[in-house]
Amino acid sequence: MSVSVLLIEDNEKNLAAKKGYLETFGCGPILGVRDPDAAIHAARSLPHFDLVIADIDLSESSKRREEHNKGGVAVARWLRETNYPAFVAGYSSFFEGDEISESERSTFDDMVDRSVGREEQEAKFEDWIERAKRSDRTSTLRALLFEAYEGASREKKDYHVPVVSLDTLVDYDAEQLAEFRDSGFKLSLMLPTVDDEIRKAIPVWIKRAKNSCYIEVVGQPYLFADGTDELQAREALKSLIAGYYDDLRGRDPEKEMGSYVKFLFRFLDSLY
């Protein structure tokens, strides 16, 4: 398995060196960015990365201590809040010890600070690659979705789609997933509390928090929305999908769209 990596490092020379080091382990694609905004944009707009590695200090190596920031922590916190399906690691050659709080450390799956030497840091990179390979649960579930879709008859897709929440499936172990796949259910990852029509057509990845909700169409990471609660996020997603549909409705779906998108748009044709 090749691990895709989002690498966040403000120093251009260090970015190139770390990217080259990751390539020696067969990682790819590797996207290197130099600031938090670019990292979040990449995570939102591109296919999901298996591994995110962030420099904690993204202040372009300022010599003034007061100008140093913890932009890498901000990125990791955003990834946590949106339940981004990647192994998230951090490192720092500036901060160490209690300069990084327990709360800040907890936003990463693993991290190293300035007290760790170069060789130890490189060993950590190798360890993070292996851990990313083992922890990619969401990719397993996405593969299950598309396997189920390809194996479903047209009648099953149109009229008999079961409803199973991703929140439920993420807790299944490998044996339970195998049993689920063999149980006769075909199209399996569905938004559990939405209109029957939407529920039949649009599998989603959903993250609920106390005062927010994030929804993304599975396999289409550019179709996402959020809101203060699930109802608001759901309505925003429906509006976004409708707008996307309007933009592409005039094209020939047989020539320009994959089977999943054609299925989605066939459903939307019945609504509009």
UniProtKB/TrEMBL annotation:
Gene3D superfamilies, alphabetized: 3.40.50.2300
PROSITE patterns: RESPONSE_REGULATORY
Name of this chain's protein: CheY-like chemotaxis protein
Keyword annotations from UniProtKB, A to Z: Phosphoprotein
Residues annotated as domain Response regulatory: 4-129
4-aspartylphosphate found at: D55
Any GO BP annotation: phosphorelay signal transduction system
Organism of origin: Hoeflea marina
Coiled-coil segments on the chain, per record: none
